[in-house]
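[agent] plan:
  1. take the single chain provided in the ticket
  2. run structure prediction with default settings
  3. attach structure tokens to the ticket
  4. add a short note for the reviewer (M.T.)
[agent] executing step 1
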Amino acid sequence: MDFIKPLGRQNHTSVTEFVLLGFSIDPKKQSLLFVLGLLVYLFTLAGNLAIILLVWIDQCLQTPMYFLLGNLSFIEICYTSTTAPKMLWDLLLGDKTISFIGCALQMYFFVTLGGTECLLLLAMAYDRYAAICHPLHYTLLMSQKVCRGLLACSWAIGNINSIINTALVFSLDFCQSNEIDHFFCDIPPLLKLSCSDTSVSQLVTFNISGGIIIGAFGLILLSYIFIVFSVLKIRTAQGRIKAFSTCVSHLTVVSIFYGTLMYTYLRPSSSHSMEQDRLVAVLYTIITPMLNPLIYSFRNKEVQGAVRRALNKDRWSP
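[agent] step 2 finished; step 3 output follows
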């Protein structure tokens, strides 16, 4: 079957399907990689679903911080589900093809969720800023209306960014080859595959997506500068440790997520190594969503208390 059809005089071609090359590994090791990938994916689903369930059923977690955390867990489930199932399918059956529409949809949802997570992490930094720097006004600064507004803005900006990038990338011509040197449809490998002039797409990606990443990261850093100044004003060492301990998990997640995003999307296209990009993509699409429940929640005493209460409730229920 021909997956690349000629368009006539323009000497261009219309791609109907792409081939995801995935990982360059020994075919004999694909079964092992499939088992490991499946376990990580199931652990990711279980951990993040547990957070959502705890936030929903436990009255002690009905706060703005955990409202945002529950939404982060929902995004992580969707985020990893845009890439992991197809990757696992390819490893298990060796069917590396993906339709043109399927590739566009995968990229749209991936970029939407990635952009939304960027801004949701910013909203969580604002929550910590409000709690530590303005504790007396916290209920006003992080009211239910404000929380929902922050969440809606995160989704709206993530969607707009994704629509623009997806439309630009898939309006390009793809000639000679339909093989994507990656395990999912992402912007850099598709730009590299195109035979069109990609300068406009690269410029838009850098300005819009880069603006979201750098802008959100800059505001997070600004929030923590104010937080550090406020924490240093606390007289007791125990008070300072307690105040800053609520931020450590968030800082860890931000460092991993933003670090890998900047490495992938803010470098010049000439410096892209697809082998390195694949390894980095595994970190922010598969590993980070798995680690977030551990980093952000299960080391938290309030979440541990919610887990104990949920287990005791199930134990004594008839």
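[agent] step 4 note for reviewer: The longest helix spans residues 100-133.
[agent] ticket updated
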